[in-house]
Every structure is written in C-alpha cells, then in structure tokens.
Design a protein that fits this description.
With about 500 residues, the chain is of the alpha+beta class. It has 16 helices and 15 strands.
Length: about 500
Amino acid sequence: MPRFKPYSYNQMKLIPVQFKDQVLPGTFEYALNYIVDNELDLKIFEPRFANNITGAPAFDPAILLKIILYAYSRGITSSRRIAQCCENNIIFKALSCDTMPHFTTIANFITTMEKEISSLFRDVLLICTEMNLIGKTMFAIDGCKMPSNASKEWSGTTKDFQKKKEKIEKTIEYIMNKHRTNDGNEQLSVTMKQEEIKHVENLQKKAKKIQDWLKKNEEKIGKGGKPIKSNITDNESAKMKTSHGVIQGYNGVAAVDSKHQIIVHAEAFGAGQEHELLKPIIEGTQENFKAIEKTEEIFKEADITADSGFHTENNLKMLSEKGISAYIPDNKFRKRDSRFVTAERHKKEKKYQPKYFTAREFQYNKETGKAICPAGKELWLKCKNNVTSNGFTGAAYMGRVADCKACGKRTKCLRNPETTLARQVVFLDGGRKVQEESFTKKMIKKIETIKGRFIYSKRMGTVEPVFANIRHTIGLDRFSLRSKIKVNTQWLLYCIIHNLKKIHTFSPQMAY
C-alpha cells in the first residue's frame, strides 16, 4: 500500500497577507481594480457626503464599487452575502482592503445609485470606444425578461383584489365559526387551536394588506382604456409571458454593437410588450454617444436590427423621420422565408368549423343587387358603396327584424341573439382605393432583399449571446430589487459587468 502525507481541512494557519499580491495580474479582479482606480470618474459620488468637518469617515465609493462589481461578476447580488465575502474571501478582502462594510451600507449604496449609474456606464463605454471595441455599423436591440422581487400571486386589477379580499374574509369567518362551534370539544388539542388562531391572524394581515393598497393606489389603465393588472409588492413590475412560463418582473432591454457585442445602452421596463420601448432605447443610445463622443450622428452610418416585437407602424415612422436605417420584420416574416415553404405540410390539419354564419354563406348577386340569407330570406340594402375595409368599398345589407325574430337559425347567425334585432352583412365589391404605401410595406420590401435578410440574420448572433452571458455564464438571472428606478440601476450594473469582461478579454494592458 502506498503511503501519503497526512492532511486535514479542519485546521487553521495564521499567515501574513499582502493584499496587493492577492489581486493577480491577468485576472478579472486585477482589471477591475485598475479600471475603478484609473479610468472611472468617482467625483460624481462626492455630493453624497457632507462629513468634511463633522461626522464619521465614510467608506470610499471606489472600495464599495469594486466589491459590488466583483460580486456581481460572480453572480452574487445579495448584500448580506457580499458583506460575508468581505469577511471570509481573500479576493474580497484584498479589493476592500479589509474594510468590511456592513451589508446595509452595501445595500444603500446600490439602491441610491440612480444618479451616478448612467455616468459610470458611459465611462466604461468610453473605454470600449477608445479600445476600438465598438464597430458602429450595426446595433441589435432586444429585451431580456427576468423575474424580480415581486410575487405574481399579488397581481390583478382592483376588481380582482376586491374579490380576493372578500374570499379571505369569508375564510376567516368560516374558521371563526368553526372555532366557536368546537370550542368545548376536548378532542381538539391546544396546538390545533393555536395553529387555527395563527392562520386567522395571517389571513387578517393579507386582507389588511389588500385594503391598505387599494386606499393608496389607483387602477392602472391600459392603452385601450381598460384596466390592466397591478402588483401589490411592486406596482411598477409587470406580468410577462416567457418561454419558461409567466413571470412577475421587468424587461431588460439592451442595444448591442455587432463588432464585439458591447452594450451601448440599456434600460429596464416594467412592460411585457416591446412596442413602446424602441424609441427610448434609440434616444438613450444617441445620448450616450453624444456624451462620450460629442456626436449626434451615431446612426448616420449604422443599421438598427430588432425582432418583430418592436415592429409597429408608428415605430417605423419614427425611424424614418429620424433618418435611421432599420431592419425590423413583421410577425409574418418567417412565413415568407423560402426555407419554410413546406412547413405547413408537417403540421396536423385543423378542421375549423365557424361558430356563426360567415358572409360567404350568404348569397349575393352583384348584378341584381340582391342578397339572400342562409334561411332563404331576402335582405334589404342598408348602404351602398359607402362601406370601406382595408381600402375596398362595398355595400351593407341587413335582415328584416320580423324575419330574423322568427328565424330558427337565429342562434347560428347572431352573436348576441337576445339583444341584436337583425343580422348585418357587408359585401366588398368595389375597387381598391389608391393609398400611400405604409411604412410596414416599405419595411417588408426592404427586408425581403438579399441585403436585408443578410443584415437581419446577424441580429440573433449579436444580442442573444449577450443575454446568455449575463444570465447563465455570470449567473445574473433575476432582479433582487423593487421599483423601476432600482431595477434599472441593477440592470445597468449587469450590463457594466458584461462590458468590463469584454475589456478584460480584449485589453491585456489593463490586466497586467
């Protein structure tokens, strides 16, 4: 049998530590330490402090920034864990010079950084520009939906919350009545009674939480004028559909340069739909380059690509007015792809049976101008050549009230037979009106060209790996804060980490 030297992990050894020797050249922490000390303008944090004459000395923002960014680069976002690492981990001790800030100091620094975070992001972006990491030929825009520190169970409209409160109150009433009925029952132990009382107290807290929220907050109204879901824990977050199910969180949108996948602008939104998010991202990108390069012509030579979630007529009109070359397909883009011509034959045939009579089931003679319903009754002409749909003109016919009331096919013909008196049908037989070509059709023509499909094909390979790196490689796969301001700060910190890792990869001089 071979013999090995004995060893044990259950031992301690006191050794002298030189902090600067622990941050090894070539590592990410070395590059981070150099960049924070030499490249970032930390004077922006000075207005926070008013202790130049009185008060205790504060932690240096450089120290806090180093340990926060390093922790985020390792997928650690909890302030308690960051503080713990500063006590136990030699790299954190070296970066913080063994100052060991309390977790409340770290949490407060992160959550109150909304004024400084944009400047820090631009400082890092300036480094990327000086290193020639930004090509400025194509920017890909996309969103990354991530859960936040909010419960989707507490989402709903005012009506939903009122129903939930009533349901909780009924449950409380039921438990209390049950408790009174069985008050003298010796079979119920003291523990069972205490658990019931505790359950009632928890339900009462939930009911009070809903009541207090309803008093302080108004109903959120959507674009269509209808109520949309709010959230009690974080009312600025949104319920979003993702490939992994429904989440309660924020949509982190980023504009990424195609050369080395540098994020040039980022912002978090509490909105699942991306239709309204394109304009602020475009304007934010322009502001960033205006701040670091003093130029407003960043999109003069660059193309914009985004997926169909950003495609609307208004967005395309906005881009056209700004003179920005963009490639944003509509939602039928892939169906027009020649590679998917035979895709339908692989799908199961769906036999669609219309619930109500369609206009095709009505007989219409254009020459005589007569229309007959499926029951054989003649309709009367309500309006001729004055009805338009998609640029076509047509005539509207309507059934006689007496015929429709006595018709046995009434339920098959009318959606609301109890309130609707007679069926109306429109026959589009007129010519198409001459209309100006929409921005959507112009985009379809542009993107269907060889050049258009080539440029758009680079979108996914530009922006999707960025989100994969942030979420899966680094491990920043959720937001731990609440409210749009704080979540936006955290999203920018995530993006700063991504850009810093790019700088570390492509700039050996900053790592040695």
